[in-house]
Each structure stands twice: as structure tokens, then as C-alpha cells.
Write a structure and sequence with these properties.
179 residues, alpha/beta, Rossmann fold, seven-stranded mixed sheet
Length: 179
Amino acid sequence: MRIISGQYKSRKIVAPKNLPVRPTTDMAKESLFNILNNNYYFDDISVLDLFAGTGNISYEFASRGTEQITCVDQHFACIRFINQTAEHFEMPIDTVKGDVFKFLEQTNAKFDIIFADPPYDFSQEQFERIPELVFKKELLNDSGTLIVEHSKHTNLASTANFDVSKSYGGNAFSFFKKQ
């Protein structure tokens, strides 16, 4: 994987082979950040990266100047890799090792962007639980956005607070906003 833009543009990050992850493709990531770039000043926002995996999305935010980034993943090896990479590049990334759903139920922090990249084999109910918890707990700032990455075969359009979905190859991003 590589960082597309910002301070660390074109830097390659090689994750260990044994991580249980499916990193967002460069094409999908570039498209996502083109959308976000039109709506946010990256150095002014706070980001929560759920199911963070390799930290791919968080590194992109950090490279673009975001100073408040929190990654949550349940796998120790993923958290260790994110911590090592963030330290190597001196990126302002905090990590939490734990279950994403428990984290969402327990946190009171608010974010401008919440990005969730759960396993594509999640059930419809598991996918829908993410926006349900985010909006029930009011975890987004007023102009905040929840983005859920999923297979193009998953449809979240009938989920509360759904705004729009964008597809790139086999990936899709569903955007949710306060109504």
C-alpha cells in the first residue's frame, strides 16, 4: 500500500503477511479522499478509524495534516503494526485494541469523520449496527460524516441517516450524515 498525498506522498508501507486484513485499494482510497478534500480541511478535523486493520486510511489522514486520529481494531498484531508505523513516521495516531461495537457503546468522544471498514462478510445487521450506534451515541460533530466501506453487493441505502453511496470496482462507500 502507498500513501497517495500529503507530507508522506508516495511512501510505501508494507504490512506483515499474517495480518487478518483487506486494505482499501489505492483507487478507492484516492476517490474517497477526493470527495473528502472538497468538504473538509484535514488539519482541522478529528478522525475515528474503525476496524483499522493496517491503518491505511489513518496514514492518509495523517499525511494530509490531521492531528487527531484514533484507530480501533481487535487484533493485537494490527494495533502493534499501526503503532510501529505511526512512530516511524511520527504520525499523531492513537490506538485502541478492542471490539469496535463495545468501543462505540462506551466512548463519549465526538469526531468529524468516522471511517469503518468492517469485514465484507458481515451480516446486513452487523453493517447496520455501525450507523445505529454512531447516531444513537451522537459521536459525530454537527457537520460530521460516517463512512462505511463495504462490498458493492451490500446495500445500506435503507439505513437511517444514509446520504449517498459511491462504488469503485468491487468496493463501495456509504456516507451517513445527521438528518
